[in-house]
Amino acid sequence: MEQLRDLEHWVAQLGAEQLLSPVLVHHIDLCLTELVSNVIHYGYPDGKPGTVRIRFRREPERIVICIEDDGTPFDPTAYVPAGLPTSLTDADTGGRGIRLVRHFADEVHHLASAAGNQLTLVFRSPRPARAADRGA
């Protein structure tokens, strides 16, 4: 969990290098933080050590990010979250992360293998940010 701070810095640096809009950087950071936190919490029961790898690829009309882990198999694309609560007393503290990822990423794909999980996130139309959008 202590490396999530490094992940945040990596996403910010990536955004600056790739001239991604601040909104897109925020969406990527939110999705990666939620998904990597879930892998750490649920993919490695009893504190079992494991590995999480994140790869980034920019294509002309989209950003593709792959998260690979060797943890417990889990397909977040097949997960059916509980319905939205009608009151605060009905609200559950869990299950919001996957809902957020589905909202902010344009595509989410899961592939299971003997080595673990591969989750691919796609963010479409990432035009480079203009200088005015970056606060320059």
Summarize the structure.
The protein has 136 residues and is of the alpha+beta class. It contains three helices and four strands; from the N terminus they run ααββαββ. Strands 1-2-4-3 form a four-stranded antiparallel beta sheet, with helices on one face.
Q: What name does the CATH topology carry?
A: Heat Shock Protein 90
How would you spell out the order of helices and strands? HHEEHEE
Shape: globular
Topology, number of strands: 4
Strand order in the sheet with the most strands: 1-2-4-3
Q: Kindly state the mean pLDDT as a whole number?
A: 85
- CATH homologous superfamily placement: Histidine kinase-like ATPase, C-terminal domain
Oligomer: single chain
Largest sheet properties: 4 strands, antiparallel
The CATH architecture can be given as: 2-Layer Sandwich
Compute the CA-based radius of gyration: 16 Å
CATH class: Alpha Beta
Point out poorly predicted stretches. none
The proportion of residues forming helix, as a percent range, comes to 25-40%
| Structural domains: how many | 1
Strand content is 15-25%
Number of helices: 3
Describe what this molecule looks like in 3D:
The chain is α+β, with helices and mostly antiparallel strands. The chain has one domain: Heat Shock Protein 90. 34% of the residues lie in helices and 24% in strands. A hairpin with a 2-residue loop joins strand 1 and strand 2. Helix 1 packs antiparallel against helix 2. The relative contact order is 0.20.
Notable traits:
single chain, alpha+beta, four-stranded antiparallel beta sheet, 136 residues, Heat Shock Protein 90, globular, 4 strands
